[in-house]
């Protein structure tokens, strides 16, 4: 087996004893541009950490405290940090109700 990794792409080839390629596959780690990334929220005592995958298409995190009637989404301006292959923002966990979304 021969494995080649370049950026977010992995190529694998299965070789026969005579070095001919018997089979192969490719894995792309980036999500499709038509697939929206999923948000994940981790809660701790005083902080919530909102995480989403880092993608080639930039997404901005928005939030609202009311999902009824006319919804007013506002940008979350907290600093974004890289946590592995995810973006992360810490927000105050004392708020009783807050919804989040990603927007291009």
Question: Could you explain the architecture of this structure?
Answer:
- The chain has 104 residues and is mostly beta strands.
- The chain folds into two domains: 1-30, no CATH class; 40-103, no CATH class.
- Helices cover 0% and strands 51% of the residues.
- It has strands spanning 2-6, 9-15, 21-28, 40-43, 47-53, 60-64, 74-75, 81-83, 86-92, 99-103.
- The strands form three sheets. It has a four-stranded antiparallel β-sheet, with no helix packed on it. Strands 1-2-3 form a three-stranded antiparallel β-sheet, with no helix packed on it. A three-stranded antiparallel β-sheet has the order 7-6-10, with no helix packed on it.
- The two termini are 40 Å apart.
Query: Structural class per helix/strand content?
Result: mainly beta
Contiguous helical run count: 0
| Biggest sheet architecture | 4 strands, antiparallel
Q: What is the overall silhouette? A: elongated
Unreliably modeled segments: none
Average of per-residue pLDDT values: 86
Number of discrete domains: 2
- How much strand? over 45%
Proportion in helices = under 10%
Radius of gyration (Å): 20 Å
- Got a strand count? 10
Q: Terminal Cα separation, in Å?
A: 40 Å
SSE succession? EEEEEEEEEE
Strands side by side in the biggest sheet: 4-5-9-8
Short description:
With 104 residues, the chain is mostly beta strands. The protein has no helices and 10 strands.
List the helices and strands and how they pair.
Blueprint: E1 2-6, E2 9-15, E3 21-28, E4 40-43, E5 47-53, E6 60-64, E7 74-75, E8 81-83, E9 86-92, E10 99-103
Antiparallel strand pairs: 1-2, 2-3, 4-5, 5-9, 6-7, 6-10, 8-9
């Amino acid at each position: 087996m021969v494995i080649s990794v370049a950026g977010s792409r992995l190529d694998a080839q299965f070789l026969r004893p005579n070095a001919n390629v018997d089979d192969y596959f490719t894995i792309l780690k980036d999500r499709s541009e038509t697939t929206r990334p999923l948000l994940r929220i981790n809660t701790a005592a005083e902080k919530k950490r909102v995480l989403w995958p880092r993608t080639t298409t930039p997404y901005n995190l928005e939030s609202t405290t009311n999902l009824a009637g006319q919804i007013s989404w506002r940008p979350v301006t907290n600093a974004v940090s890289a946590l592995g292959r995810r973006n992360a923002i810490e927000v105050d966990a004392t708020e009783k109700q807050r919804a989040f979304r990603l927007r291009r």
